[in-house]
Fold:
Amino acid sequence: MAYSEKVIEHYENPRNVGSLDKNAEDVGTGLVGAPACGDVMKLQIKVEGGIITDAKFKTFGCGSAIASSSLVTEWVKGMSVDKAMELKNSQIAEELNLPPVKIHCSVLAEDAIKAAIADYKKKQLTKGS
Amino acid sequence: MDRDHFEVLGLARAYHVDAADMEARYLALQKETHPDRFAKALPRERMDAVVRNTELNDAYKVLKHDIKRAEYLLKLEGIDLGEEKPQPTTGATKQLVVDAKLLMEVMELREALAEARSDKDEPKVEALTEDVQVRRARALQIVDEGFTAYEKGDKSKLDAIARALVSLRYYARFMEEVEGKE
Structure:
């Protein structure tokens, strides 16, 4: 299958690959997977004063899954948590020109950022208790 | 009208099958429905034969493969693991949620593999491969035992089978990565 130029660009030069300390109070971790294709995606955010100051990902999967998570980390940096929560997979798919069979990769990336935010919020609730 | 793959081959719904018997049934039906036999038949009969022949080939392709047969059986029981290559229109179908524990396990294995690879640590790559083979064998055993119960009318193990089959897909991806396949 032919990947779009943007997918290839992210695949060859993925942004923000790596890990943040998943036990840190200001870090949220989202770990999601697509059973159909056997992909696994980890997306982490570091939050300071309601703003996402850093984002890292590790994805083991196809080029579109890697590009989708790379793009999301790039987008959410500097974004407020609330704004990041509104990210839609359709925006990712559109930006990367994903073909219909690869839309599920962008869904996975949306799930990952939402899971990371949920994890961060959960930590804030239990903080200091 | 639509027959399931087991019906097409005249088999009972089961994971444990006699491969030789299945092949014999396939070959016999293949002969019976082969388009060459209908070269001089009425258009209607010829069409029927083509449909039956296609149905037969589709059935055999799935059932002769252990894991595909297992996944198909679950699908017949209403548990869909999803297509490996999702179709454009299936965006709305519910997807099985992957167990968080399995995801963590897979992430750790894949990270360890990537690390061993970049360190050119071949013994470590081999050790990880063996580790995954053991996990794979364990998952296959769960599938085997689950279907043994199923074949006796006990459907309580279907969720466990589904989880094992999902993990098998992840282990297969791991092995592909080791072998350098895309």
User: Anything to note?
Assistant: The two ends of chain A are 51 Å apart (CA to CA). Residues 9 and 113 of chain A are 21 Å apart (CA to CA). Helices of chain A lie at 5-12, 63-76, 81-85, 89-96, 103-126. Residues 103-126 of chain A form the longest helix (24 residues).
